[in-house]
Design goal:
GO terms for molecular function: nucleotidyltransferase activity. Strand 2 and strand 3 form a beta hairpin. This protein has nine helices and nine strands. It is α/β, with parallel strands linked by helices and 239 residues long.
């Protein structure tokens, strides 16, 4: 079984002085989260679609899904997120395990709620390679030179750009394997995690690369909202 897991647990602190988390801000007349959920609802491979959000925003999320998506919105399960990204993912796995059970074929396609421009092709390839390899991550080649600094003051190294990639989402994993690997981490290992793919890397497991898109951008800053509006306008005008 394949599950879509949309991570909407952030509070959007980098968006500035706004009255709500960024996933609930509007672009093109609809909350960002709704645009993202719509992309997953277009795909018929999912057993269930799960959205994880801060506790105080659960009812608001349910109301938005009903308002903008009608009956389709009522099929989306809304759960409490965790205090970290990976704890939020673990909450989704706990729900799946309780309701459906976990086996080697249980796959979760995890995605940032504030990346509303993912495509059907990206979701399709995440499912395909997730089932084939057990873990995959959506990336694009780095276009800028990457500079590595140990102390944040001087350059330590300049990696070969041809081997560097910028991570996006979705990230897709065998749920059972991800749970086992996460539970085997030390507290020190958990502290250095940035995303779920790193769990596999730390434990020596391979993560397959899925080709992303430059416009599969994450809305983080106020400037990104203006870019997102422009992208939506281009899509409407067929550009």
């Amino acid at each position: 079984m394949v599950f879509g897991v949309i991570l909407a647990g952030g509070v959007g602190s980098r968006m500035g002085n706004v009255e709500k988390p960024k996933q609930f801000l509007k672009i093109g007349g609809k909350p960002i989260l709704i645009h993202t959920v719509e992309k997953f609802l277009m795909h018929d491979s999912f057993q269930e679609l799960i959205v994880l959000t801060p506790t105080e925003w659960i009812e608001h999320t349910k109301n938005l899904l009903k308002k903008y998506l009608g009956e389709a919105g009522s099929t989306v399960k809304v759960l409490k997120g965790g205090s970290t990204r990976n704890e939020t993912i673990m909450n989704s796995i706990a729900y799946i395990e309780e309701k459906y059970g976990l086996d080697d074929d249980t796959l979760i396609v995890t995605h940032d709620s504030v990346r509303p421009f993912l495509t059907y092709r990206i979701i399709e390839e995440n499912i395909k390679y997730g089932l084939q390899y057990g873990a995959c991550d959506t990336v694009i080649p780095a276009t800028d030179t990457i500079v590595h600094s140990e102390d944040g003051k001087v350059i330590t190294s300049v990696p070969d750009r041809s081997k560097m990639y910028q991570g996006q989402t979705p990230q897709t994993f065998g749920a059972k394997k991800l749970k086992e690997l996460y539970q085997s981490l030390t507290e020190e290992e958990k502290e250095i995690l940035t995303d779920a793919s790193k769990i596999f890397v730390i434990k020596g497991e391979q993560v397959y690369l899925v080709e992303g898109e430059v416009y599969n951008t994450k809305i983080t800053y106020p400037y990104d909202l203006r870019v997102a509006e422009s992208l939506l306008n281009d899509q409407k005008n067929g550009q």
